[in-house]
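Researcher: Good morning. I'm working through a list of sequences from a screen, and I'd like to move beyond sequence-only analysis. For each chain I'm collecting a predicted structure so we can compare shapes side by side. This is the next one on the list. No need for commentary yet; just the structure.
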Amino acid sequence: MKNLRDEITETGGAVISCDTLDPLDLINKFAGALKYGFDALPEELEAEVIDWLEDDFGEPTDDDREQMGWILDELFDLLNDNAPEGYYFGAQEGDGACFGFWSIEEGE
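Model: Good morning. Structure tokens for this chain:
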């Protein structure tokens, strides 16, 4: 992946994940963007991500869902923190299953 920060500013944004709300898919894509796009995935969080992606735990329990939610929140916050100036990380307006970097409109 080329430098994601440059891609975002050159093209006016970037899609990281689209058409899925599966927590493991989102964890994989969000962590990949942080690690390879920004070199900004803390080691402790990377270890958690690897554990989840390598674990074949079957149907997730409520505790599993809570832990995946925590990981997603951490990844989401890190992506937003690493967004170039004038951009934010979040769901695309009108499509809650499309996550990426979007331009902050003037006056928002």
